[in-house]
UniProtKB/TrEMBL annotation:
Name of the protein this chain belongs to: Uncharacterized protein
Keyword flag Membrane: yes
Keyword Transmembrane helix: yes
Domain of life: Bacteria
Keywords: Membrane, Transmembrane, Transmembrane helix
Regions that span the bilayer: 5-20, 26-42
Amino acid sequence: MTMDQLLFLLILIALIWMIFKVSRWIWRIASFVIVLVVIWYFRETINSSLTQYSEWIPNPEVRANVQQFLQTFFEKLNQFGQTVTNLIQ
């Protein structure tokens, strides 16, 4: 596990803990958006790691479905990132 992956994992655990720790719904929504932004920021590391791990799946049909899901998920995540970037600008 590289240092980037370890850092991402620690940040993600802290953010998920924060989502469940806060009590007001507005803070839960804000925390969820923060988690999405962190995932978007580390998307290349996550995508390469998950793609690498998905190749260990022995069933080719399941492996293809997992890789298709990952591809679709990261395409949607990139669209989300572009939308947020456009809103900020």
